Amino acid sequence: MSHVPVLEIGGTHVTAAVIDTEARLPVPFPAVRQPVPADAAARELLDAIASVAHRVDVPEAAHWGVAIPGPFDYVTGVGRFRGIGKFESLHGVDVGAELLGRLPGAPSGISFVNDADAFAMGEYRAGAATGRRRALCITLGTGVGSSFLDAGHPVVEGPDVPPDGRVHRLTVDGTPLEEVVSRRAIRLFYARTAALPGTGRLPDVHDIAGSARAGDAHALRTVRHCFGALGRALAPWCERFRPDLMVVGGSMTGSWDLVGPAVREGFESWAPGTAPPTVTAVRPADAPLIGAAHWALHRSATPPVPT
Q1: Contacts from 188-197 at CB under 8 Å and sequence distance 24+?
Q2: Are residues 167 and 47 both part of a single domain?
Q3: Domain count along the chain
Q4: Does residue 269 share a domain with residue 132?
Q5: What is the pLDDT of residues 242-271, one digit of tens each?
Q6: Can you give the pTM of this predicted structure?
């Protein structure tokens, strides 16, 4: 089985594609992406996800790969979304069983994988992390995603990685990391720093980056503070895990000319020389799809564990 249908479920969108795992590309047509109502009732949300899958030509009786953010039980396929502001209606829902009844082509099974792990495995298979024994892959979007790869496989336990291999669980200077480095946190820090009015629309991250490039001292301070904190949080784990490379993806990499130096400064402030070589993703759009396909391919070829 070299053609694997996949879904990437994000906080505001779903992407569907069929991946040729040998060529490491979507086939035979480009991936299909459309918005989904993350705050909708479970049935409406599941129908919206499945409707995207029906727009691609999938093989019959295929085993699907689905990349989805946490909190999620990736083994049982049950949602654990509670108190995070998205997919709340899927909390406690057997998403696997619900999708099996909705996906096209009478699927034979579904393998779920964390979206950050899917991105990392895709970059390992066909992107910046190819050929690297150990890689740390970070995504910067609404929040901070992470995956610690060893020979292309996510490491989720042991002394060399944070709990579950997730850096969003870390704290920096006593504060949860995502209260410092996330879309919401960055916008709020800039608003406080620039003493903006409490009402009205806050500038978004790309707007803050543009102001920083123009020399706005408040914006420059925001970038250095927020992304320097990310470097300080990552530094001790990079010292333990010793990645050959750090690959960064997500929407905030559009401002990497500012973000990158701030992250490195954070590393250096913790301990000089701890920062691994760092690059932005080569396949930012395709990597999660490619990773999910290879995850499904591996899982469908693995005999089930007797119960």
Answers
A1: 189/222, 189/225, 189/226, 190/218, 190/219, 190/222, 193/218, 193/221, 193/222, 194/218, 194/219
A2: no
A3: 2
A4: yes
A5: 999 999 999 999 999 999 999 999 999 998
A6: 0.91
